[in-house]
Structures are given as C-alpha cells and as structure tokens.
Amino acid sequence: MSREAVETIEYKDHTIEIFPDEIGESPRDWDNLTVIHYHSSSYVLGDTNWHGKLDEYDAMVKKAERQGDLVIPMFAYIHGGVCLSLENFYGRVPEGHARFDSGRAGTVIIKRKDILDNWGTGKKKRITKAMMEKAYNSAKADIDTLNQYFCGDVYGYVVDDEDSCWGYYGTEDCIDEAKEVIDCIVEQDIKKHYEQMKIWIRNRVPLSKRHSLEVALEV
C-alpha cells in the first residue's frame, strides 16, 4: 500500500496498520434520525439546501415546531475548513473569526414520531423532557460525526497486509475492530493446533516428530 500508516500496532504477534480512509462515505448517506436543513451557496452542510428559498425554509421550520418536532438551530464556522455546532461559536473562537467566519447555517430536526418510536414507553404520546434530552444528544452525535467527516477523521485498518476494513470514524473503534479480527485468527489457530494434536495422539506420532510436522503444517 502506497499510503503511509498513521499508526502501527503489534498485537499478539500480528501487525495492525491504520490508514486514512480517503474515500469514506458521508454519514449523511446513513439512515439518520436527524434531518439537517441548511442554507449555503458554496458548501454542502447537510441533507437539504434551502439557499435562495428562505421563505420556504422559514415556513418549514415553523411547521416542524407546530408539529412538536425537535427543532435545533445549527451554526457553522468556516475558516480553512468546516465545523458545525448546535451552539453559537461566539465566545468559542476568536472574536473576529466569530463575526466574519461563523453564523447561523440551518436547522436540525428530529420528528416527533421518531422521538416517540425511539425513546417513548408504553402507549403514551406525550414527549417528556428526558426524551427531548436523548433526542438532542442524538442530534449532537450526528453533528459530531459529520464534523469528523469534514476534517478527514475517517480510517481503515489492515491486518498483516491481508485483512482490511474501512469507514471508521476516529481511530479507537478502528483499532478495537482490528484487534477483534486478530483475536479470532488466534482462536482459530489454537483450535486448529489442538485438532492437529488430537490427530497426532490418535495416530501415536512420536513427540520427536511432532515439532517438525508442526513447522511444516504451520500450526
């Protein structure tokens, strides 16, 4: 592989290499609870762009509020890259940057029905404060993941130049999955070794010959 690994890990006599995933799919292609509505003439910041249709956008937001959907303002900070947030960037970035490079960029919505389906209990159709908090945290997680996509924080692993998988957001899950693959390989090797030992014992193969056979069979 021509790309350079960002991290190399030795684990149980196997090698894990972590590489940037340069063609990872957008998390907005997934099945998301949130719908990200935005208005931008130059950037793709979510699912539906209302640029040039602000009257329709305002009507859509008001309708969502009347329906009891969770409606959250979304802000963007664009300065050498794109970063989204459910909170204003004022006080979090330099004053000049906040004034000229950040601002309201759209709205994140989770439908009332989806909140009830995912966090409701029983037959009650009332949305509680706790349910709204869970929905808000889900929206925040979606924004955080989209920010990872924007800044290229997406990776894949290669184990022993053979097994690989891609599309992990952040390296932690990527490394954990690679280790699970190695755990399975080691478990299979141990099982294979014990099965071979049973065959040698059953066939009364002398101990002096088992080592050479083990090397030849790579068990």
**Residue fraction in strands:** 15-25%
Residue share in helix: 40-55%
User: How do the strands line up in the largest sheet?
Assistant: 4-3-7-5-6
Secondary-structure element order, N to C: EEEEHEEHEHHEEHH
Oligomer: single chain
- Averaging pLDDT over every residue, what do you get? 88
How many domains make up the coordinates? 2
The DSSP helix count reads 6
- The overall strand count is 9
Radius of gyration: 26 Å
Shape: extended
Which structural class best describes the helix and strand composition?
alpha+beta
Biggest sheet layout: 5 strands, mixed
Question: Which regions contain 5 or more consecutive residues with pLDDT less than 50?
Answer: 212-217
Instruction: Give the N-to-C terminal Cα separation.
Output: 28 Å
